[in-house]
Design goal:
This protein has 6 helices and 17 strands. With 313 residues, the protein is α/β, with parallel strands linked by helices. It folds into 2 domains: 14-234, Zn peptidases (Aminopeptidase); 241-308, Beta Barrel (OB fold (Dihydrolipoamide Acetyltransferase, E2P)), CATH 2.40.50.100. The structure holds zinc ion (ZN).
Length: 313
């Protein structure tokens, strides 16, 4: 078991698959695809959330990339949260019950998810010229495909355009994979495809087509490739109300549906049907994702409303 990553470039085209043991008790599968010619290093991670299967399967298929097709290097971690995958966890790493995608930049002396975040920030992200962290709706979420990019990073925004999903969310905030990588100067994108534990050839293919367009944009592969379905995605910001109380969640909007400020997004009720909270939109926009679980706990995200950014043109 290796503690540290092997060299990304040896001068020989190669495919290297193995397991890494970066922190005690954690074994992570990885792949390095080294092309014959030098070029950028694209880092691809999936399974930060262990039950987002479409993203995990897409990363697994990338492990089989022919090194003869690429310039540069692909560094792939198809399942970062291995215990979450095995135990079918929602959101968290079972080892400490924490959401890895809220823990960045982590701590060297913290719990497992904090240590893993710290290792990624100090030992993995600095190796990358660009970063894709693949996600989807979790077991309890449905969504219409979109990408998230760190707000204010033009190179990341260009990755969103290249990836080609119809909506791109300018995301702020701390603790996230792509934000931590952006702070190190690495252009980063978080694509979200499929949800509710579903994956199919169609959804995995959609994720793979986006990855291929990003590799083409970075000069890792040359054409021809399937072009993005639109010149630019709809650029939005996302507003996410969280549950003010625990109870049963009755959404009144579906993904992609438009919504006006003041409209009801859904209701939290008790088991006898009494309304405990009514959730109204503070924004005009459309639904990007929603919780599909009937059960909701106080503080959990209920629904994502995308509000189009006003064009500067
Ligand atoms: Zn996720």
């Amino acid at each position: 078991m290796m503690k540290a990553l092997p060299a990304l470039r040896t001068g020989q085209p190669r495919v290297e698959h193995g397991y890494l043991n970066p922190i005690e008790g954690v074994e992570i599968p990885f792949g390095i695809i080294e092309g014959a010619k030098p070029g950028p290093c694209l880092l691809i991670t999936a399974g930060v959330h262990g039950s987002e299967y479409c993203s995990i399967e897409a990363a697994i298929r990338m492990l089989r990339m022919d090194p003869g097709r690429i310039k540069g290097t692909l560094l792939i971690f198809p399942i970062l949260n291995v215990q979450g995958f095995l135990k079918r966890s929602i959101y968290v790493m079972p080892e400490d019950g924490k959401n890895l995608n809220r823990m960045f930049p982590g701590r060297p002396d913290g719990t497992v998810s904090e240590k893993l975040a710290h290792w990624l920030v100090t030992s993995v992200y600095p190796l990358a010229d660009a970063y894709l962290d693949l996600h989807g709706g979790d077991l309890d979420e449905s969504l219409a495909p979109f990408t998230l990019f760190p707000n204010g990073c033009e190179k990341s925004k260009a990755l969103a355009t290249a990836f080609g999903l119809p909506v791109a969310v300018a995301a702020g905030g701390e603790g996230y994979t792509i934000n931590a990588a952006y702070k190190l100067g690495v252009p980063s994108l978080l694509p979200e495809v499929s949800g509710n534990g579903l994956w199919s050839e169609e959804t995995v293919g959609r994720m793979l087509a986006g990855i291929e367009r990003v590799m083409h944009h970075l000069g890792i592969i040359s054409g021809p490739i399937e072009p993005a379905p639109q010149a630019d995605p709809a650029f939005v910001t996302m507003w996410v109300p969280s549950a003010p109380v625990s109870g049963l969640w009755y959404a009144s909007k579906e993904v992609s549906e438009p919504v006006a400020a003041g409209e009801i997004l859904g209701e939290i009720r008790d088991v006898f049907g009494t309304a405990l909270a009514t959730i109204r939109s503070e924004k005009d926009g459309f639904i990007l994702y929603r919780l599909t679980s009937l059960s909701v706990n106080q503080g959990e995200a209920l629904i994502g409303v995308g509000t189009p950014l006003v064009s500067e043109g």
